[in-house]
Amino acid sequence: MIINQGSINGIYKSFRVLFNNAFTDTQTHYQDIAMVVPSTSKENSYPWLGNFPGMKEWIGERKIQSLAAYDYTIKNRTFEATVEVDREDIEDDNIGIYTPVVAELGRAAKTHPDELLFIELLINGWTKLCYDGTPFFHTEHVVGKEKYSNSGGGTGAPWFLADLSRAVKPVIVQIRKKPQFVAKDKITDDNVFFQKQFIYGVDDRKNCGFGLWQLMYGSKEEFNATNYAAARAAMMGYKKENGTPIGIRPTHVIYGPSSEANVLKVLKADFIDSTSNIWRDTAKPLPVPWLP
To answer: Is the pTM of the predicted complex or chain greater than 0.85?
Structure first.
């Protein structure tokens, strides 16, 4: 292939199509459990976390419910992935060897929020802090005069029970800049002139954080009917500061490959150990490959 800016522009357009197609075709999981929030600055604050507004009889003037002023901020982070294409491969019409690499850039850009959310955040939810200053999964979240637990303890593979029926979600994915496919491929660029390398990549800005701990229960105990029942009971017992129930309704069990057999047994089997399974279809299984 004769290398000129026209042929290089054609390669960029082909790579961009590959990137976009892979990005579009890749399945992700973060939208299933996270509140996706657009960001317009370097960080977003969430002072309203911890507040559950409720209806009351209107007598006299309206009683304004003040939002709890928690100091919880998610700072955006910048991420990138970059690959090189050797000029001689272009000259030799060997550009096809880079097709899977560019497609992988698209897949990696699409799934990266999953990696942040499940691997970096939720798996470490027993140490990373949420809006109330305690670990997200904790045995002593203070609400009013009461303490509540959303942690089942244990040391095995983590699984999570969540109420995903509300507008507010247990976790937040904050998007400042969507993934953008970029190139440094001008014939006069230093990387081409000195290293004979054309550079292609993707970058974005985002981060994730915790929403309401009341909407998710985490455990590293074995997933079985007993531990599942305990998690449901804990979540459904959460109350507001005024003592009224929040009305939590667990809807999904989130788990990794090692817990799949146990989860499906509890949520889908008609019988468990020859006994009628009262937990069948009480929550939806949500398998996530990013969890152990």
So the answer is: yes
